[in-house]
Specification:
- The chain is of the alpha+beta class.
- It is built from 15 helices and 36 strands.
- The chain is globular, with a radius of gyration of 31 Å.
Length: 836
């Protein structure tokens, strides 16, 4: 039950109850001498009052940067204990990590939040506490004061519900008003000077690329919560937006396009209408999550938490001051304030901040010294509650208003590129070498089940990319493109042979009707456009829409689109039977992939991608089709192989779209049919050559430390053939040629297939084959996606609600409709995917 308490009082029934108890104790004192008068239980507010502090530092600040502050407001709730972004929503399934980290199991799902919350205000001059809102079964977070200082915008999840939505409440606890609703979470709102609100929301209908939980991307709504519109197409989280004095929105953007998933979560800025999304600070320097950034009054600097590595739970880290004058890449522009471990900093000046940790609201000075304003009493800490988001209750000036630059009658925007061959890491590139831009779109995941990229790739990208087409580059390096709005677009620069020269490892988002310009390719962010009397050649004509590539599907699926090419041109030499070059390029299945896919993507430089490294902006021809040996092996110089141009295009574009295995996300959580090999039995005859010394000595687990030349992933890789167990390299390499084997071992271990160890190994692979046939994989007839995938796609509206328990469906088509739903619809003037 929600309680709003503005002052303490004793109801009449409580008075009568006390009076009755006292009277009874008096009358029967002789017969109940030990009985004590009942003491009314303390209210929550009374219990909290013991936590009020008045530190010496406060007196100094009240004479200076906090001279106009009387009250502060803060939230109390159960903190997240998973990654820094897992503070709302449900987990995708019941893997071990969600089971260990979820706060509760309700309604058939595991949830990343706990119950119990308060919105409290404290008079920092008198010590008085007042309860604005209390909900023992709900959640309260992210308060921000209105410009007039009279009401608070915050996120509230009433007890018994599962979604946070935007609310407003007066500072005295009256006038609670719900602004947004629906089956998705709305969090971290900020007021904009034009009366709108920018916030983060899971209305974007996607899951984290490398975790089990939903994403929240940036949205905008009117002051009353209506006209909700998507601003960001990010596959991963946008967090903690806040309005800058110049009217832009400062926020954290976590992104990775074919680079490390745990290193790039830096500060970006955009206009409140979503236009002009550009890096603000840090995106060139991996390894810090920059969260809770806010402008410092009276300066052009900002304060932010720099959370180390991939970020700590609940945004914990060091307070830093950032000066943006030297551009977004200058490491010296950030100054750490002391060594305290904080979250939720709120600046009054460069020398005065409010901040929180789990049980304390702190006042922090510019040297990093800190003293407590409020200490959460032990009873609340024992209940797993923590303090969050301290803010002053004060009027504040409105920021500058930036006029709306969108045109919601359009579904596209425009990009002008001045010179694609101007930028960093372009040394040695011949002039006019780049002839086209391949336009790709990063595709969101409707669900995800792990922290890895499997089974999408083996150590590579976490997402699929859709091919939109190519646009021409003029001989002066300029390009002018018309591209779909609200999509995560990135480019690959192509030479005269359509081979990749350079590629983006970030993405751009256009709003409807927006025009965006770039100076070059990975140019210094402090550079201005060149001054020239000659206009860019690309601007002499109309903007070019991406031209589709004939015969190539927009999303390439390796088993469907690439394997038939290998079957036609390669398998006659590279099979388990012939095994030329000790290479198997058949479509026979390993535990999670195929022989061919595993071999191509894990063998040296056949296919070159970024391998999930914290690196980007490579030199020309260092990554993609321009660096991949496979492109040479499909030319006639390799045993006179004769591929059609369409077949070459498919292989080239498969590489340049990050060489994924499936062309559908239903593959997630499918597969994983691992053999069970008796390694102890193998040790006596195979361990000397193929087991590490530690494994031979029993220091490792029996299945650890095995190695087989030219084979990867050991038991789950190409050494075991799950489609045809008797074709497994593990059996055929030590089997004599006379018995149909390869005879590759230094000594022939199996003279024939009657060898007991041969039979024992085969018996360990055959059950995996049986499970594969019964359970199927996404590329097998009759495959049915897992129930968690179906649940989320039903929620999004792309799978019918009454799907039968054993009924399957065209998941390629369902996903196409899901991806296409994010295109902006100028008729509706909304994103189709926005929750209604």
């Amino acid at each position: 039950m929600v309680q709003r308490i503005t002052k303490l009082f004793i109801p009449l029934f409580l008075f009568l109850f006390l009076f009755s108890s006292a009277f009874t104790n008096t009358v029967f004192a002789n017969t109940a001498a030990e009985q004590k008068p009942e003491i009314p239980p303390q209210t929550t507010l009374e219990k909290l009052k013991s936590g009020v502090q008045r530190p010496p530092m406060l007196e100094k600040m009240l004479q200076g940067p906090m001279k106009d502050v009387e009250w502060i407001v803060f939230a109390i709730r159960i903190p997240g204990r998973d990654h820094w972004y897992v503070t709302f929503g449900n987990y995708s399934g019941r893997q071990q990590d969600p089971v260990n980290l979820a706060w509760k199991d309700e309604n058939g799902l595991l949830w990343g939040f706990g119950d119990g919350a308060m919105l409290v205000k404290q008079n920092i001059r008198t010590g008085e506490l007042q309860m604005i809102l209390e909900d023992p079964k709900g959640g309260i977070r992210d308060p921000q004061l209105h410009y007039d200082g009279k009401k608070i915008l915050f996120c509230y999840r009433p007890g018994g519900t599962y979604q946070y939505h935007l609310y407003e409440i007066n500072i005295d606890g009256s006038g609670l008003k719900q602004l947004t609703d629906g089956e998705y979470d709305d969090i971290e709102p900020t007021y904009c000077p034009d009366g709108t609100i920018v916030f983060c929301s899971s209305r974007c209908k996607r899951f984290v690329n490398c975790w089990h939980t939903p994403v929240a991307a940036l949205y905008r709504c009117d002051a009353d919560g209506k006209n909700v519109r998507l601003l960001s197409s990010n596959n991963d989280h946008d967090n903690t937006p806040w309005t800058l004095p110049d009217g832009r929105i400062l926020y954290m953007r976590w992104e990775y396009v074919d680079r490390s998933q745990v290193h790039y979560h830096h500060l970006w800025a955009m206009n409140p209408d979503g236009t002009q999304q550009f890096v603000y600070y840090g995106n060139l320097h991996p390894g810090i999550a920059m969260l809770d950034a806010k402008p410092i009054p009276g300066t052009d600097k900002i304060v932010s938490i720099f959370s180390p590595g991939h970020g700590a739970p609940e945004h914990f880290g060091r307070i830093n001051i950032v000066c943006p004058k030297n551009g977004p890449d200058d490491l010296g522009s950030a100054k750490q304030i002391g060594k305290g471990w904080f979250k939720d900093p709120y600046p009054f000046s460069e020398d005065c901040f409010l901040a929180a940790n789990n049980d304390t609201i702190w006042i922090v000075d510019g040297e990093g010294k800190f003293e407590p304003l409020f200490l959460l009493p032990k009873e609340f800490k024992d209940a797993k509650l923590a303090v969050h988001e301290p803010r002053p209750i004060n009027p504040r000036p409105r920021e500058a208003i930036i006029s709306d630059r969108t045109d919601l009658s359009k579904s596209t925007g425009y990009v002008i590129l001045e010179d694609v061959e101007h930028g960093r890491s372009l040394e040695g590139l011949a002039p006019h070498k780049i002839k086209k831009l391949l336009v790709l779109k990063q595709l969101p995941k409707p669900i995800n089940f792990s922290g890895g990229m499997e089974p999408l790739t083996i150590g590579g990208t976490f997402t699929m990319a859709e091919i939109l087409g190519t646009i021409p580059v003029e001989d002066d390096g300029s390009a002018y493109a018309e591209l779909p709005a609200l999509q995560s677009i990135f480019f690959v620069a192509l030479d005269e042979n359509d081979i990749a020269v350079k590629r983006m490892h970030s993405f751009l988002t256009l709003q409807p009707g927006e025009s965006m310009s770039c100076v070059g390719c990975h140019e210094e962010r402090t550079e201005a456009p060149k001054i020239s009397l000659n206009p860019m050649k690309a601007l002499r004509g109309h903007p070019k829409k991406p031209q589709p590539i004939a015969g190539v599907p927009s999303i390439i699926d390796f088993p469907r689109d690439i394997q038939p090419i290998l079957d036609k041109h390669c398998v006659q030499c590279h099979s388990p039977e012939k095994y030329d070059g000790k290479v198997d390029l058949t479509g026979d299945k390993t535990a999670s992939y195929t022989m061919s896919y595993t071999r191509l993507t894990l063998h040296g430089k056949w296919v070159v991608d970024n391998r999930n490294r914290p690196l980007s902006n490579f030199k020309p021809y260092e990554i993609g089709s321009g660096a991949s040996k496979l492109m040479q092996l499909i030319e006639p110089s390799h045993y006179n192989v004769q591929l059609t141009q369409e077949e070459k295009n498919k292989i080239r574009l498969w590489i340049d779209t990050s060489a994924t295995y499936p062309g559908t996300y239903v593959a997630l959580k499918s597969g994983g049919y691992y053999p069970s090999i008796d390694c102890n039995a193998m040790m006596k005859r195979c361990g000397e050559c193929h087991a590490s010394k530690e494994t031979q000595e029993g220091k490792n687990k029996p299945w650890e430390g095995w190695h087989f030349k030219n084979h990867h992933q050991t038991w789950g890789g190409t050494i075991c053939n799950i489609s045809n167990p008797d074709h497994s390299f593990l059996l055929r390499a030590p089997l004599a040629k006379e018995a149909g084997g390869l005879g590759l071992c230094s000594r022939i271990e199996f003279k024939d297939k009657e060898d007991p160890l041969y039979k024992r190994i085969l018996a360990g692979i055959e059950p995996a084959h049986k499970r594969l046939v019964e359970g199927k994989r996404f590329d097998m007839p009759g495959f049915r996606p897992n129930n968690d995938y179906i649940r989320e796609m039903q929620k999004y509206g792309f799978v019918k609600k009454d799907l039968g328990a054993d009924e399957t469906f065209d998941f390629y088509q369902a996903e196409k409709e899901y991806f296409d739903s994010f295109y902006f619809d100028p008729v509706l003037k909304d994103v189709i995917s926005a929750a209604k």
